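pipeline stage [seq->struct] | target=Acetyltransferase (GNAT) domain-containing protein | organism=Epibacterium ulvae | residues=290
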Amino acid sequence: MVWRLAEQGDLSWIQDFLMQHAQSSMFLLSNLKTHGLGSDAPRALRVWTQEGIHSGVFAITNEGMVMPQASHANEAEWRAAAGLVAGRTIIGVLAEAHQARQFLKYASLGHHPCEVNRDEPGFALDLNDLDVPNVDGLELRPLAQAPRSLIVKWRRDYNVEILGAPQAEAGTRAEAEVSGFLARETHWALYRGANPVSMCGINAQAGPVVQIGGVYTPPDLRSQGLARCAVALMLRHLHHEGAQRAVLFAASDAAAKAYTSLGFQRNGSYALVVFASPTHEKTATVEKCT
């Protein structure tokens, strides 16, 4: 099928289609909810759909993150998708793992240097089935109540450890991210007594579905079940607020074990690919692939 640029009249079915694939579409859904089509915001989307059928979406943010949701796309369609972003800055790919690898292959970007390049196991949970562990002595508080300097340090360390960010950039990035967390009220700190011991948050939300992310416990406090308790308390709160389902991706075996202990079930895989430096998908490269 031929890709065509999405129009305002497509938004309703696109959102319905993405909700059917919510596990790997949360960033797409959240960005569309926040910015719609045609915004010049960095994370606003330019979106294409598969002509004549409602079975595929291909998108790129203004800052250059590629985000497809097209599980039935064939080789020709992936080559054509690479052509859609010819000449654009590309900073990475966030997508269901197989789709991400297909795009990178046919865009000849599979060997581009990366800050992070991994496929993470996905998990999903009906919040009616949440299994809350013993949380005696622990309290979840809005992130704004925690010392900002500590939260920025944690986020900086998270960026280096989990996202592979260079040390020189991680601090500045963390400052900006924490400002966003506070403004949107999307993150929380877990306290034990008077001390913050872990943090977690919502990466994206679409209707009754929330995507959990930013879970971090400093190394000296690990192996105590604190991250698990933080996520459990946050999910219980979100369920009371109306959320019905949670999805997430595990960055480690330890994280996966913690999530399954809360009732999460394995559900697909997600590729997190962030380039070490932006690249431009050249028309010549696309033509060479076709």
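stage status: PASS
auto-comment: The domain at 131-262 is CATH 3.40.630.30 (Aminopeptidase). The chain has two domains: 3-120+272-289, 131-262.
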